């Protein structure tokens, strides 16, 4: 059974890659979407046969929850996909991308919390999350958690801007310094998770990552949102790849790496087309209140 599951995941990953290749041309884009969708259906069906589900004492509950999740997510996606106007497609992409990052972060949260509980009840009394998961899995799980969480909250802000629900971009005094300090503190809590078994540390870590994603995205001007969404898409792919390693899921690893690399290349191409660097898009504050005030001051001075 395990061999069949892994073979299904490998075929699904191949369909993802072929679908992405087909999407590079308007002529074959629709076919590519169908191929990638078929790969996702195959990967989902293979999940039902996972030993973690079938060998569990709560197999009926697990399968029931999966079916409910598919019905809710698939039903809403079908409805919104039929209803959305083409002019609103960017914000839909931002929203769905955020959901992908959030899903990766949720997978990491489940694994980290489970490892924390196991470590807390270990007979030695000094076990850590790294001891329960292993060093490599713990590191990738924590990195996937912070990347996925930032992509989730940042994508939600991008959606709100594109949808007209957040109309202004504000740059706080010393915004970039605040972001840098917040990133350092978040990473510090990530390191603390590795060396401890504290549930409170995990909760604070996720809250800080959520805030960091918001603070990163809010100052970015509306015209730069497509570049930011593309970058968050790449980050979501990276997070999915990391969490695929945590779960030992080949389809997630391959698909995450493909999405991460393709998204990174697309982000770079989009920034180059605007005659700017990705760093300039993030840190220049173009289109923000602060940038506008600076421009007005310069105009009065001239």
What is the structure about, briefly put?
The protein is an all-alpha fold. Helix content is 80%, strand content 0%. The N and C termini lie far apart (74 Å).
Overall description:
The structure is a single chain. The chain has 302 residues and is mainly alpha-helical. The chain has one domain (88-301). It is built from 13 helices and no strands. Helix 7 (135-162) runs antiparallel to helix 8 and helix 10 runs antiparallel to helix 11. The longest helix has 32 residues, at 89-120. The termini are far apart.
Please outline the helices and strands:
Layout: H1 2-22, H2 29-48, H3 51-54, H4 59-83, H5 89-120, H6 129-133, H7 135-162, H8 175-195, H9 199-217, H10 225-247, H11 250-273, H12 278-283, H13 289-301
Which descriptors would you attach to this protein?
single chain; 302 residues; mainly alpha; globular
The whole-number mean of residue pLDDT values reads: 85
Helix content: over 70%
Total individual domains:
1
Shape: globular
Report the sheet with the most strands, covering strand number, pairing sense and barrel closure. none
DSSP helical segment count: 13
| Poorly predicted parts | 286-302
Q: What is the gyration radius calculated from CA atoms? A: 21 Å
Strand proportion:
under 5%
- Following the backbone from N to C, one meets helices and strands in this order, namely HHHHHHHHHHHHH
- Give a count of the beta strands, DSSP E runs of length 2 or more: 0
- Which class best fits the helix and strand makeup? mainly alpha
- The rounded distance between the terminal residues' Cα atoms is 74 Å
């Amino acid at each position: 059974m395990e061999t069949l599951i892994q073979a299904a995941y490998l075929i699904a990953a191949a369909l993802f890659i072929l679908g992405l290749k087909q999407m590079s041309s308007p002529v074959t884009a629709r076919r590519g979407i169908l191929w990638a969708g078929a790969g996702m259906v195959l990967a989902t069906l293979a999940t039902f046969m996972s030993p973690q589900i079938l060998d569990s004492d709560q197999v009926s509950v697990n399968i029931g929850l999966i079916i409910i999740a598919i019905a809710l997510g698939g039903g809403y996606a079908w409805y919104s996909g039929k209803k959305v106007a083409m002019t609103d497609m960017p914000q839909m992409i931002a929203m769905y991308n955020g959901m992908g990052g959030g899903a990766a972060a949720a997978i990491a949260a489940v694994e980290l919390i489970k490892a924390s509980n196991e470590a807390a009840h270990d007979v030695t009394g000094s076990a850590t999350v790294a001891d329960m998961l292993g060093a490599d899995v713990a590191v990738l799980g924590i990195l996937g958690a912070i990347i996925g969480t930032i992509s989730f909250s940042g994508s939600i802000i991008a959606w709100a801007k594109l949808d007209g629900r957040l109309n202004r971009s504000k740059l706080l005094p010393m915004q970039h310094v605040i972001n840098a300090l917040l990133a350092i503190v978040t990473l510090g809590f990530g390191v603390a998770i590795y060396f401890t078994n504290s549930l409170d540390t995990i909760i604070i870590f996720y809250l800080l990552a959520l805030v960091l994603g918001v603070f990163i995205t809010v100052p970015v001007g509306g015209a730069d949102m497509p570049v930011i969404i593309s970058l968050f898409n790449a980050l979501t792919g990276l997070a999915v790849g990391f969490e695929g390693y945590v779960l030992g899921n080949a389809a997630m690893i391959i698909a995450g790496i493909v999405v991460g690399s393709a998204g990174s290349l697309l982000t770079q191409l989009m920034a180059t087309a605007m005659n700017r660097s990705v760093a300039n898009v993030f840190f220049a504050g173009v289109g923000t209140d602060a940038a506008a005030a600076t421009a007005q001051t310069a105009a009065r001075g001239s």
